[in-house]
Specification:
Layout lengths: L1 H51 L1
């Protein structure tokens, strides 16, 4: 009985770690999206400034 309890605990921990890993991947994707969004705006502003000067 104790072994079964320990096995279920490790399975729960494995599921939690997978969930945490998925959350970290989502945050890194969101960060990458924000970075390219900001970089795109800076590039667009630089091109606009070059055209206007």
């Amino acid at each position: 009985m104790l072994e079964g309890l320990m096995a279920s605990m490790t399975e729960d921990e494995a599921q939690k770690s997978d969930f945490e890993r998925d959350k970290e991947v989502q945050f890194s994707r969101f960060g990458t999206f924000l970075f390219w969004l900001a970089a795109g705006h800076l590039i667009a502003l630089a091109l606009l400034a070059l055209l206007l000067l």
